[in-house]
User: Fold Transcription initiation factor TFIID subunit 12 domain-containing protein from Phytophthora kernoviae.
Amino acid sequence: MPAGSAPSSSSLHEPMAPPFNSFTNASTTNKALTPNKQLGELLRSIDPKYCFHPAVEELLLDMASDFVQDVVDFSGKLAKHRRSTTLEPRDLQFCLAKNYGISLARVLPPSAQMLAGGAASSGLRPLGQDLLVRARPAKNSLHMHRMTLKRKSLQHTKTKLKNAHAAKVAEGAKKVVRWQEDGSDGIAAY
Assistant:
């Protein structure tokens, strides 16, 4: 287009090419384009006599799109933190485990793990080795003994403080102010 000339209306309305993604195929593209049909098919597979109210269907679709957006945003931030331009399964796994409590370790089929280079290289871990699930160390007897001594010491200190406070209160209760017959005041302890 020569400099100084206005863009033609046909060039403004040309559709943009979708971004290149080596993992998309015809079946995933069709599934992404028809979520309403999939939602209806899912409900019919559970019970054929039920159908969604349009407001409920819209709400479920909004919730699903928000969920996907949140997971992709958080996973993208993780990938950026790793200084990578590619989302890896471990990014999604960490996001789902941390934010939603969902584990992907044994959910993916073996073919999907092989496409990603195997379980070890893709970053997926077995259920027992999840990123956020760690076994607590066993308590040993020395630790338990120290904790018992500390608890007894604190209890003993509290008892001493209570007794001292009770003694002060009792001592203060013994002092009574009395008016004497001659008009002067005096303090008598009983």
User: Anything to note?
Assistant: The first strand starts at residue 175 and ends at 179.
